[in-house]
Amino acid sequence: MSHIHFNQGGPAQAGQFIMKTVLYCRVSTTEQTLAHQQTQAEKAGFVFDRVVADHGVSGFNVKMRDRPEGRRLFDMLREGDTLVVRWVDRLGRNYADVTETIREFMAQGVVIKTVINGLTFDGSTKDPMQMAVRDAMIAFMAASAQAQAEALKIAQKAGIEHAKAEAAQRTKVYRGRKPSFDRKTLARVIEMLAEDAGVTAIADETGLTRQTVMRIRSDPGAADKNLSEWGL
């Protein structure tokens, strides 16, 4: 098919396809909001016919087709439609899933646009050089999304190790309040945070309060140190 520009408003002319533009948002943490992603896209000049969002869903372990609203996109979008996302990490943080998702949408004739960097992934081109550049960019962006998630896990582990080293050097330690969690629970909280799980979802699974989860998120090293100080 030839490249199709999506309609930015106004009545459809005779013979034109009635195409739609859909904004997909994945809101996985308390710092992210649907309103922020939508406002950012609108400031970039996008106009939407519909906004679809998944809340509290990990982009690392939960595939696009396994998300309640993500699954709907595959049935909702048709040839000539445009899918807008803030960045490819909203589609996911797993390399294989992100590349597969983008390729499947392009095969359906759907154009994917990102708010950040203004990238366009379009399956209509038949030029081999353009296809190679496009596919290389898809691979790079998907790999970057996964690398960011993995880097977060590494940074959290480094922070914990640093806190342990500092605790070992102290001769007198004020232990403070006894933690309401053990090491197994702390490890699960850190794992879910690395997967972009929301505070409420983590609290529900671990039995901790939202305030405790937020304290761990802000300083996982301190949480581990507190356990060490209590001999837990």
TrEMBL record:
Keywords: DNA integration, DNA recombination, DNA-binding. CDD domains: SR_ResInv. Pfam families: HTH_7, Resolvase. GO terms for molecular function: DNA binding; DNA strand exchange activity. Coiled coil: none annotated. The active site is at S28 (o-(5'-phospho-dna)-serine intermediate). It comes from the Bacteria. Residues 20-167 form the Resolvase/invertase-type recombinase catalytic domain. GO terms for biological process: DNA integration. Belongs to the site-specific recombinase resolvase family. This is Transposon Tn552 DNA-invertase binR. The lineage of its organism: Bacteria, Pseudomonadati, Pseudomonadota, Alphaproteobacteria, Hyphomicrobiales.
